[in-house]
């Protein structure tokens, strides 16, 4: 093999590898279902009341933060966690801070310790079998931003 052929082969393989990396990172970064919690998702069927969730976060006197969850057509059922019975209006929540799941949520309130700076707080509704709920392809969730100074 001539030196020129080896350089061309190396260039070809490098170009293909670079193209693969670009496509891999593009498709994995644009697929929102890969970034949620690692749990599979399930679409709410037509005819079922679609659960809704709205959250708020307020600062408490001890410098912690209180997450409050208001929901409709959905009941937290900790006693059924892990159940394989699918009921699109029963389950629990997943609490995220800056895209990282920090805990499960089985009630309407949760105390948060937040780092300084801008924080994205999200609650997503999840079935008892840990499937994330989707409505028309969108996760049933709510998110707010909280700025912690200091």
What does this structure look like?
This protein is of the alpha+beta class and 150 residues long. The protein has two domains: 3-30; 41-148, Sandwich (Immunoglobulin-like), CATH 2.60.40.10. Helices cover 18% and strands 43% of the residues. The strands form three sheets. Strands 4, 5, 6, 8 and 11 form a five-stranded mixed beta sheet that branches. The longest helix is centred in the first third of the chain and has 27 residues, at 3-29.
Structural classification: alpha+beta
Q: How would you describe the shape? A: flat
Run of helices and strands: HEEEEEEEEEEE
- The number of domains is 2
Q: Helical percent range?
A: 10-25%
Query: Count of helices?
Result: 1
Task: Output the CATH homologous superfamily of the largest domain.
Answer: Immunoglobulins
The count of β-strands is 11
* CATH architecture tag of the largest domain: Sandwich
Give the overall average pLDDT. Answer: 86
Estimated radius of gyration = 22 Å
Proportion in β-strands:
35-45%
> What would the CATH topology of the largest domain be?
Immunoglobulin-like
Report a brief summary of the structure.
Keywords: Membrane, Transmembrane, Transmembrane helix. It is built from 1 helix and 11 strands, in the order H-E-E-E-E-E-E-E-E-E-E-E.
Helix and strand arrangement:
Elements lengths: L2 H27 L11 E3 L8 E8 L5 E8 L2 E2 L13 E8 L2 E6 L3 E4 L4 E11 L4 E4 L2 E2 L1 E8 L2
Parallel strand pairs: 1-9, 4-5
Antiparallel strand pairs: 2-3, 3-7, 5-6, 5-8, 8-11, 9-10
Keywords summarizing the entry:
single chain; alpha+beta; 5-stranded mixed beta sheet; 3-stranded mixed beta sheet; 18% helix; flat; transmembrane helix
